[in-house]
Automatic annotation (TrEMBL):
This is Glycosyltransferase family 4 protein. InterPro entries: Glyco_trans_1. The keyword Transferase applies. Pfam families: Glycos_transf_1. Residues 168-323 form the Glycosyl transferase family domain. Keywords: Transferase. The keyword Transferase applies. The lineage of its organism: Bacteria, Bacillati, Actinomycetota, Actinomycetes, Micrococcales.
Amino acid sequence: MNTSARVVWFVVPDGFDDPDRVSGGNVYDQRVSVELRALGWDVRIVEVAAESSAARTDPFEPLPDGSLIVVDGLIAIGRPSAIEAACARLRVVVLAHMLAESFPDADPQAVEGEKRTLPRAHRVIAGSEWLREELARRGLSTPDRLVVATPGSDEAAMATGTATGGSLLCVGVVAPHKGQDTLVDALARLTDVPSWTCTIAGSTAPEPDFAARIAAEAQAAGLSERITWAGVLTAGVLDEAYAQADLVVAPSRTETYGIAIGDALARGIPVIASSIGGIPEAAQPPGAAVLVSPGDPAALGDALRRWLEDPRLRASMSAAARHAAPARRRWSDTARTIHATLEALS
């Protein structure tokens, strides 16, 4: 392949690499762009405002005819008219990080954007097998155009944790779909269990009212001394949080995959998570994870109580996580799948 054929335009939300605006989609875009360069692609980043009056502009118009472009799904569904025009003259690959309709309060414009853009894309990269199946079932793409490239994780040192198993960690934007309210309610049922603490790491900016409400609920339940609202953690500080964690909790109401789950298991940290979306794919092997119904604080509380009170369960789950950690999928694996998709379109 000649050099010009290896150019790929990568259209992403503006600030996708801003450490204060961490999201699963942004992490995916960052890591894939880096790994594609390592595989020989000339990756040309185009940052686009995700939500503003600028959505009326066409970020694809300046690109030469026949260009190969990878578009973050957030950008794609926000600009259906631009994508429709682009698909007529460009080779368009959409990275689908989520399914808008799966959110509790789905944005009608986002749902409509999916219906207009995804069927027209030449390829759709789904972040999990679950998402691929959902997109095909809903007629948003066809099996021959759907490719699964699940998120990877970095090779990391095994977490040291604590002797009691009481260091709990929850990572993700503080928002209803991530279910931190369910976690707070579950923890309020465990005030009789000594020695546990929980760090909730993630931005509170997108849903400030929700974040303030559950923080107030935690305080009213007498959990202020046991829950730390850490906000967005830089990479190094987040690594430290994982290193000190005994268990990662992911109480999501909807989730395409769960990058934090993969990051935890790559460090040998067991997981208690919701049995929703693509989480069962991420929460492997089964012996390293307990899955509970989403939005069910009683079920989550029971699972946490078993973890905290049963040393044999903790030892078994930790051993399973540590044993499987070296074989976890890496970001280079994710990028190789996308690389093969781009080569086929080239």
